[in-house]
Design a protein that fits this description.
By secondary structure, the protein is α/β, with parallel strands linked by helices. It is 27% helix and 29% strand.
């Protein structure tokens, strides 16, 4: 089973590069299933119906979310009507949606789990390690992908080691900066601290760079605005064997100039 995980899709620039490049990637790489983190897909904050349909129509099979899950009112409808969206399992459990889902991929079953970190994160979620334990006990498939939406590298790395041998892959999201540590852990779990961001390349984490520079230099409190211009595609390709173990994992990172 060959998976493509797309790092945080940020606003229209992120959606545009997914629409233009995802079909090619799926064909060239022989991708069986595509997952994207969509919590920033609507203007950088949350997901609305337009963002969902544009990405889904482009070839994204499933979506994970994060701390901005409930920023757009559309998400309540989407979580009730669309069974391909997975929101954090360890936060706002009384809200609509599920923190894990199982998808058919050919004759196999793939479980996708979404967890929210607790270190330097707002809001504060329940313990993601214990949430992972509880979910894994309910699963009857060796093919398990975890999107850990967390701030600190230490918490992500710790979860990777904690789940090594029990899940197929642990991929981090949230920081919007792709890390260079893709590897297979000793018991067969693929790991990457952060898949990065799919969106505005000449930005600060997707936001207009001048706004952020002014904030650091002058302490201004301007409203964050999404950047535009050149676009980047960040993600990771994960190849799983018949036992659900990772046999190859490699980051994807390219960009395209604005037209």
């Amino acid at each position: 089973m060959k998976l493509l995980f797309i790092g945080d899709v940020s606003g229209p620039p992120g959606r545009m590069i997914v629409q233009s490049e995802l079909p090619r990637l799926i064909d060239e790489e022989g991708i069986d299933f595509t997952i994207a983190n969509g919590e920033n897909s609507a203007g950088g904050f949350g997901m609305h119906c337009r963002a969902f349909h544009e990405l889904h129509d482009a070839g994204v099979d499933a979506f994970t979310m994060g701390n901005h899950t409930w920023d757009k009112k559309d998400i309540h409808t989407l979580l009730k009507e669309q069974d391909c969206i997975v929101r954090p399992a360890n936060y706002n459990t009384e809200q609509p949606g599920l923190g894990w889902r199982v998808f058919g991929v050919g004759d196999k079953q793939l479980a996708v789990i979404n967890l929210l970190g607790t270190v330097n994160m707002d809001p504060v979620a329940d313990n993601p390690f214990k949430a992972a334990d509880a979910i894994i006990k309910q699963l009857d498939t060796p093919y398990i992908l975890v999107d850990f939406h967390a701030e600190t590298t230490s918490e992500k790395i710790a979860l990777g080691w904690y789940l090594d041998g029990r899940v197929s892959a642990v991929v981090g999201t949230h920081t919007h900066v792709q890390t260079n540590d893709a590897r297979i852990l000793p018991r067969g779990t693929g790991y990457l601290t952060d898949a990065g961001m799919t969106g505005p390349r000449d930005s600060v984490l997707g936001v207009d760079k001048n706004i952020i520079i002014d904030r650091f230099v002058n302490g201004s409190k301007q409203r964050f605005e999404l950047a535009y211009g050149d676009r980047q595609f960040n993600g990771v390709i994960i190849d799983l064997d018949e036992r659900g173990r990772c046999r190859d994992i490699r980051a994807v990172n390219f960009w395209q100039p604005a037209l």
